[in-house]
Amino acid sequence: MNVELSDLTRRFGRTYAVAGVSLQVGPGVFGLLGPNGAGKTSLLRMMATVLPPTSGRLRLLGRDPGSVGPRREIRRRLGYLPQNLGYYPGFTVAEFVEYFALLKDMPPGRVPRAVAAAIEQVGLGAKARAKLRTLSGGMLRRAGIAQAIVNDPQLLLLDEPTAGLDPEQRVAFRAMLRGLGERATVVVSTHLVEDVGAACTEVALMAAGKVVFHGTPGELIACGEGSGAAGDAPLERGYSAVLAASRSAAARSATETRA
Amino acid sequence: MTAAAPARPVTARAFGLTPLPLLRLLRIELRRSTMPWLLPLIAALFWFDSYRPSTGMPPLYVLRTFWNMGQGHTIIDFGPFVAGAAAWTGSRDGRRRTADLVAGTARPRWAAQLAAWAAAAIWAVAAYLAFTGAMFAAYAGQGVRGQPPWWWAAAGAAAVAAFSAAGFAAGAYWPSRFAAPLAAFGGFLAMVMSSQTGFRDTTGWALILPTDSNGNFQPDSGLLYPWLPDLPIARIMLLAGITMAALGLTGVRVRGDGPRMRLLAAAVTAAGVAAAGTAVGLAGTARLSAHGIVIPALHDAASDRPFRYAPACGQAAGVPVCVNPAYRRWLPDVTAALGPVFGEVAGLPGAPARAIQVGAVYDSADGGGGQPMTIGGRPPVLLLPLGAFGLPGAPGTTDPFFAFQLRLFAVHAFTGAGAAAGTAAQRAVQAALLHGAGVPFARQPSLLSSGGLPSWAGAAGNGGSGVAQGPVYDAARRLAALPAAARHAWLAAHLAALRSGQLTLARLP
Q1: CB atoms within 10 A of CB A67
Q2: Digitized pLDDT (tens) for each residue of chain B, 509 residues in all
Q3: B51 and B42 in contact (C-beta within 8 Å)?
Q4: Nearest residue to B174 (alpha-carbon basis) of B112, B230, B250
Q5: Residues 342 to 401 of B: which have CB under 8 A from any A CB?
Q6: Torsions phi, psi of B293, nearest 5?
Q7: B 14-33 residues with CB < 8 A to A
Q8: I need a surface site. Which of B215, B238, B250, B321 has the fewest CB within 10 A?
């Protein structure tokens, strides 16, 4: 397993953003679904080793990110696209990707070819010398994806990767995800259930800091069948049904606690 | 007893500091640094504040660079802008929300920060050296003589690096859009305070401030004597210490790099603080020597040896006058000024057979101006500390005033008054000889009370009354009214008593 989480929590003040998540993720594309504030981004940031957990156990690529040496090894093999992609407006696309390739400690000899390949893969070849400040939102997102995949990561964490992409780009991106999933573990956090249906082999649904569903997209679809949950597509109905069930369970639990 | 396991060598690689990727990072940072955008502004400031005012000074390096290097105006021109630009770079990840992106990479965050700082610092220091080099090249083209103050240029470059490091650290600690203007203002404030302290405190630790010119820009530095590097070395130590401490602090705050890296950063900070503290301590031991500030722990006796040179010589009323070749352009002024004096005293006992330039000795109490001439040796030689005088072309020094200074000091030396106003008889003889050398009695009191002359001159000028009257001037007029042969004979007979201070005013003719 490339990602092993055991009773992982992360607290900000009194609020638990992640409240005891246990997951095991192997190679393939793993979808992380959930409403706003469900804790997806905090979970991804912990997996990206930028946010230490408050408690619980986290192992990535068979290593403990709590120790400096293993953490560095994990980071060499990690690709991460944050939800809010920051960038240096004066850098060109190629410089931005090269910058992160060097920060990821790639062998210098491999960097130029890897940078070119990553930029081509996201379809920004014609814009390689363009400054980031001149790019559209979708192009910036693709530049962010390029920096995430430049080191051919074994663990790729993508937080809302398709936000801002047009339909054609999203189709191409899903194809790319499927390709990456054949040789790496790809964790995709998204609101867009169609991305999950098209690209993910496994999916988890988070609500209020907890994983309320873990299974295949087919199993999620099955949860929605006959439930009468809202949604235009089977996956959406499954998503809504699981969320509704988790909310009513939470409400019941709260009532019992008060009683 | 068990055998100890061999210690694993600690390498740069262990800290993730392999040089080649860092150089490539540096290349990207150099290309995208904000510093070059500020260089035209700094260049304009440098031109108007550092270079142009200096061109009003006589063409000697020590005079041309007193303002811009000695008083640190080149540093003042760079410092605030460099601090601001570095703070802008240092605050980049906070402002651009790239903190998560960079924190999740394998290379230590501190190493990447150092690359970003290095780019800003390289631009700033290279620009400082280029601007200073261009200024020196312009001076060379204008025939400026002497040795450039290289050590001061090095201290200036170190100051620019220190400003960049301090600004960068400020930006890294407080990453907001206000970091840059606040750092720039902080840099400006530091310069203002440094200058004020430098003007006020002429000794002790304050000498370490790079804008404090007291005592280290000597009249003949780089002309008759080498520039004493003691103080610039201490300043470089201070500034390097500040640079190290600031950069170390940026590493201390990065938690994700692990305890070893933070320990290394803390050690760098501590080393920087120690270096800076040592430098301040060394400055506290500084003393003023004849040719500059000496710090005993840093002083090399070889720096005290005067330069050897082939003098430039001329004639003043038949008396050879030799000066350092750097002063060659003023040789005609010197001979023209001394000629009438030598003509007046020719043939008298103690009249100079030769005049040679000697190194001026800095006297902070007297502002360095107007060091007395002396006559000594056999045959008598007039020793000219030309570096202590305002030269023609310097602000406040006209050609006539320069001539008056030389005549006054030569006559003063001839009467044996030393570094004091002299007895009434000496003052009377001085006035008569000055009158004979072309300085009318009526002009003498006002000239003697001019700025730039030592305190005894005012006393000799009739106590600052402004009028050439009273017993001294009455006696001087009587002596001057004698026929030349009679005056000559009287002086020959009474010079010994006059110089020993035993001659009274009543004994003058």
Answers
A1: 12
A2: 333 444 444 444 544 445 677 888 999 999 999 999 999 999 999 999 999 999 989 999 999 999 899 889 999 999 999 999 999 999 998 888 888 888 889 988 898 899 999 999 999 999 999 999 999 999 999 999 999 999 999 999 999 999 999 999 999 999 999 999 999 999 999 998 888 887 777 778 888 988 887 777 778 889 999 999 999 999 999 999 999 999 999 999 887 778 888 999 999 999 999 999 999 999 999 988 878 889 999 999 888 888 999 999 999 999 999 999 999 999 999 999 999 999 988 888 889 999 999 988 765 544 445 577 888 888 999 999 888 888 887 777 788 888 888 998 999 999 888 777 788 899 899 999 999 998 888 888 878 877 777 777 776 665 556 677 788 888 999 998 999 889 889 999 988 888 888 888 888 88
A3: no
A4: B250
A5: none
A6: -80, 130
A7: 16, 20-21, 24-25, 28, 31-32
A8: B215
- Amino acid in position B447: L
Those residues with Cβ within 8 angstroms of residue B307's Cβ, 6 or more apart along the chain or in another chain: B223, B224, B225, B226
Question: Is the peptide bond between A108 and the residue preceding it cis, with omega within 30 degrees of 0?
Answer: no
Distance CA A219, CA B321 (A): 108
Which among B24, B25, B100 is the nearest to A45, CB-wise?
Answer: B100
Q: Residue A126, Cα to own-chain centre: how many angstroms?
A: 27
Helices vs. strands in chain B: H and E counts, helices first: 19, 7
Q: Please name every residue paired with A213 in a beta bridge, in sequence order, or none if there are none.
A: A205
- Residue A224's contacts (CB-CB under 8 Å, 6 or more residues apart) are A231, A234, A235, A236, A237, A238, A239, A240, A241, A242
Cβ B46 vs Cβ B82: under 8 Å: no
Instruction: Record the tokens describing residue B506, joined without a space.
Output: 């009543």
Write out the two tokens for B170. 């400020």
- Work out the number of other CB atoms within 10 angstroms of the CB of residue B7: 6
Q: What is the ipTM of this complex?
A: 0.86
The shortest CB-CB distance from B104 to any of A78, A95, A98 is to A78
Give first-to-last CA distance, chain B, whole Å: 105
Which amino acid is present at A64? D
- B416 by DSSP, 3-state: which? coil
Is B256 within 8 Å of chain A by CB? yes
On chain A, the residues whose CB falls within 8 A of the CB of B101 are 80, 82, 85-86, 100, 147
Contact list in B for residue A128 (CB cut-off 8 A) is none
Backbone angles phi, psi at A27, to 5 degrees: -60, 150
Cβ–Cβ < 8 Å for B24, A114: no
The encoded tokens of residue B319 equal: 């008396």
Chain A residues touching B34 at Cβ < 8 A: 90
Chain A residue numbers with beta carbons less than 8 Å from the beta carbon of B92 are 88
Annotate A234-248 with three-state secondary structure: HHHHHHHHHHHHHHH
Alpha-helix runs per DSSP H in B223-258: 230-252
Residue of B24, B98, B261 lying closest to A108 (CB–CB): B24
Q: Give the whole-angstrom CA distance, residue B468 versus residue B470.
A: 7
Sheet of A55-60: strand order equals: A15-25, A3-12, A55-60
Tell me the chain A residues in contact with residue B119 when contact means C-beta distances shorter than 8 Å. Answer: none
List the structure tokens of A171: 């189709």
